[in-house]
Specification:
By secondary structure, the chain is of the alpha/beta class. The chain contains 13 helices and 17 strands. The protein is elongated and about 80 Å long.
Length: 464
Amino acid sequence: MASLLKCRHQHVRLLDPGAGTGSLTVAAIEHLLGLKNPPQSVHIVCFEVEDAFLPFLTENLNLCAQHAGEHGVNLTYEIRRQDFLEAAVQLLECAVFGLPAAEQFHLCILNPPYKKIAAASRQRTWIRAIGFETVNLYTGFLGAAAALLCEGGELAGITPRSFCNGPYYKDFRRFFFERMSLQRLHIFESRDKAFKEDDVLQETLITHARKCATRGKVRISSSLTPNGQNQNTMLLPHDSVVIPEDKEQFIRLLSSKEEVNHSIRMDRFNHTLSQLDIGVSTGRVVDFRSKNHLIMQPESDTVPLIYPVHFTDWTISWPAPSGKKSNAIRALPETASMLLPPGYFVLTKRFSAKEEARRVVAVVYEGKKIFDGPVAFENHLNYFHHGHHGLEADLAWGLAAYLNSGMVDSFFRTFNGHTQVNATDLRALHYPSALELSKLGLFARTHRPSAAELDCFLLELAGH
């Protein structure tokens, strides 16, 4: 992380929000002192509120100052025992109201705290004052740090990857990319190593970005674990990593030639779900809220309740004999809003286990073949529909086949690195035309093809 930072100034101000014992700052100073043309002076500002870390942080910063002096560099530091977000608001307000200029930094290196924040919390209020909404402290820290950088300033941070996609971080991405240009991204592909102590089950990302309007090339690399060797390195245009026309501003981490090729081929499929008049929604039944209406086996006054446990190869196996999940929900006035009319629906799991080979798993619910009446989908599922009614059969099969292809799975992983498959992520995909999906559906219904066979069929559709 430290080696990513450039030194474009003779007098450097370095920011470390949430410094802990100062290990990242130590690494940054070691890097700066080792440059051919090191800075003449460095002023470090560390934010840390945990008392237990302060003696170690102070000792490390003293050692940095001593080491810098031996290299002829004047190093000074401050330890600010204040919440970084609160301090950022105060500094930025100084600039807005024409009081003494806000402190700006040339470099920032950070490993921000990972913690969800409530809408009514002080932290959320401070983040709104900075200019964006978010749901986790780590993106709050990233956004605040970006706001405090001077023009041309640089940021290197290590975080979970979840901010790259999804609706919860959309406003953060808008705020960040209004200010910052990506320079380097490195992915640790193991989802349970880098932040194991925080129970973060998603891929980890090192982000290096510069505060400037220029959008150049982004170097993307990957390794399995923090100690592993780089597996792939790609140099790509910024506009292919964050597509300017993408309203969601997803970050697409294309880390291999195969993924780049899949991305190029996926560009041939340029229909959105709204253009296809297809919607995707989250299952309506939250089982713990409806437990009084759920039963294990169907009865005369019930309809099917579909869970991920009912997924089988391409279709639904219902009722399930395991006894772990309810198979039915009573059809009552209280449950009427949870039910959908009979028809063909495409279902995907909202959560994938880390050991699963595929991120997107799609099946077809075949209406009257399973039950001659309404159906309910549990909240751990997404369902594709036409105005919350069923799809035409070939179209449904084609949509499921497309989602089950290796091409889509590879492309989906470029912007989704965690266990959730949100409806927003599925809307962000582009799809073949309705006619092409129906042709694919006819093929899938009769052949039940493998992912490789689906890719071959899609390549023919794409004209490759």
